[in-house]
Amino acid sequence: MDDRGLAADGTVAREGALDRVPAAFTPVVDAARARIAAAFSGGRLHSAYLYGSVPRGSAIPGVSDLDMLIALRDEPADADLATAKAIGAELDRGFPQIQGAGILVDGTRALLSERERYDDGFFVACLCTPLLGEDLARYLPRYRPTGRIARDTNGDLAAVLMRWSARAAESTTADARLALSRTVARRIVRTGFTLIMPAWGGWTSDLYRSAALFGHYYPERSRQMRIAAATARTPTSDPEVIGMLIDDLGPWLAAEHTAVHGAKKPHR
What we know:
268 residues, alpha+beta, Beta Polymerase, domain 2, four-stranded mixed beta sheet, 53% helix, globular
């Protein structure tokens, strides 16, 4: 992989691997593998994946989350979502090296569908590390850092901002504002990066690097994006920071992203 996250053929290289998992996180990854295999037995499980800082090798004990995707052979039912949530809660309680465990659950038909080819498909093929079962990436194309990926992964920020505004109005406690600031900041930085990704010609999931790269193209918004990256790592309950992200940087970014790459069509 080169410095721009690309393979030799110019396509986006898969960013994680099991041999990059830091030693401190090996026990929780092993436990996750065992619990998922046991909970979704009987041939229902197609595959499971890690994503985020743990398989990238940049996770910090006591700070980082454990993020996973479970792909079922059929569409998930409510009971499957509840099972995944229970596994995540159990891992969070049992392993202090993670700050939380989040598990997405989806069906293979949806993940491999044409409508998700440049959103969930890109996510699986480039950002997910196989943990169990057959790798769905074998059925997906090689991806280049294009405007299509930018649009399909992050072209719906305007709709998300509306939900965040409502959530901000309801966040009356410091803990609620901390959680909101982290969610908002992460998405803002990732959307900012995909805005400039095709022009830069590469891929990174590093939030600080994403913010720095964004600043080269939009220096007038660089300071705000650096604040967003810092908030993603160290959340804040400060209403002014949250307001800046949701009411100022966010709307500008949503409009600019749509102007450059187009709006994402509603999928599911």
